[in-house]
Amino acid sequence: MAQLFDGRATAAAVLQEVTERANTLLSRLGRAPCLAVVQVGVDAASAWYVRQIERTGHRVGIAVALHSLAGDCAADAPARLVAQLCANPTVDGIIVQQPLPPQAPLQSVLAALDPRKDADGLHPYNAGLLAQGRTMGFAPATPLGGIELLQRSGLPIASQHAVIVGRSAVVGRPLALLLLAQHATVTICHTRTQNLAAITRQADILAVAAGRPGLITASMVRPGAIVLDFGVNDVDGQMTGDVAPDVADVAGWLTPVPGGTGPMTNAMLMRNLVLAAERQLG
Q1: How far apart are CA 119 and CA 122, in angstroms?
Q2: Does residue 155 share a domain with residue 102?
Q3: Which CATH number do you get for residue 48?
Q4: What is the CATH number of the domain that holds 234?
Q5: What is the DSSP letter of 2?
Q6: Which H or E run includes 69?
C-alpha cells in the first residue's frame, strides 16, 4: 500500500517560513508584501482558487488585492490593468487568473507583465530562464510544489526516470525542466503518445497532469513508484485526480486528491511572492 504524501503538513511548513520572511518585509517596506490577482469574467473554479489565495495570504501576512474586469471588457483592458499594477510600487507580485475571454489571449496579457513581478512564473522571460536551467527567474507554483514534496520527503530525484503525463505550460513542461535541473532523466507523454502504459510503467517518478480523471490505473504503474497526481477534476460533485484509486495498491508513494499537490500550490505561490518582494528591495 502506498505511503501518502501529506501535502497539507508540508505546505504548512513552507508557509511558516514564508510568514517569517513576510514579517521581515513588513518591517523593511512599512507595509505587508502585496500580491495582485487579475480576474477577468466569472469562472467558478477561478473564483474558488482566488478565495484560497486570499485565505492563505491573510494567514501568512501577505496582502492579496483582487482586481476584476467584466468578461466582455475591451480586448486591451486586461493588459492595461496589468501594466498599471506593474507600475505600482506597492504591488510586489501579480498573477493573472485563467481562463481569459477570447478577445484577450493570455500571451497578450503576459506581454504587459514585468517579469520581476511574475509570481506565477508564466512570462516568456521566466520560462526561458527555466529552460536554460538558470535559477534567477520564477517557476510556476504547481510544479514547484511537486518538487518540494519530493525534496522534503527525502525521496531521490537525481538519476531517477521521471515520466510526466501532460505537457501544459503551467505544469507538465515546467515540471520536466525542474526535474532535469535535479538531474532526473525525463520523458514527457501526452494525449497522442502511443503505448502510454508501456512508458509509464518505466517510471521511478510518475507525474500526472492530464486533466483526465482516472487516466492512470494500477496496471500502468511500476510497483514501488512515486506517483504525483496534479489532476483536479469534478466528478459527480467530488474532487478527483488523474490517478485511479487502485494505484494506491501498487505505488510506493502517492499524492492524495485532495490534500496532496493542491495545498502546495498556494504555499509555493506565496513563496514566489515574498521572493519577488525581496529581490525588488535589493
Answers
A1: 8
A2: no
A3: 3.40.50.10860
A4: 3.40.50.720
A5: P
A6: strand 63-69
Domain of residue 79 covers 20-115
User: Three-class SS of residue 188?
Assistant: strand
CA dihedral (6, 7, 10, 11) positive or negative: negative
Q: Are 190 and 166 in contact (CB under 8 A)?
A: yes
Decide: 67 and 39 in contact? Cβ < 8 Å. yes
Distance CA 267, CA 10 (A): 9
Distance, in Å, from the CA atom of 232 to the CA atom of 221, rounded to the nearest integer, reads 20
Helix, strand, coil shares, percent, the chain, to 5: 45, 15, 40
Residues 149 and 257 in one domain: yes
Q: What is the pTM assigned to this prediction?
A: 0.96
Helices (H) and strands (E) in the chain, counts: 9, 11
For every one of its 282 residues, what pLDDT tens digit does the chain have, with 9 covering 90 and above?
Answer: 999 999 999 999 999 999 999 999 999 999 999 999 999 998 888 888 999 999 999 999 999 999 999 999 999 999 999 999 999 999 999 999 999 999 999 999 999 999 999 999 999 999 999 999 998 899 999 999 999 999 999 999 999 999 999 999 999 999 999 999 999 999 999 989 999 999 999 999 999 999 999 999 999 999 999 999 999 988 888 889 999 999 999 999 999 999 999 999 999 999 999 999 999 998
| 112 in Cβ contact with 94 (< 8 Å) | no
Residues 246 and 147 in one domain: yes
Instruction: List, in order, residues 6 or more apart from 74 with CB less than 8 Å away.
Output: 103
Is 15 within the bounds of a domain? no
Residues 104 and 208 in one domain: no
- Residue 194 in any domain: the answer is yes
C-alpha cell at 13: 511548513
Decide: 236 and 266 in contact? Cβ < 8 Å. no
End-to-end CA distance of the chain: give it in Å, rounded: 48
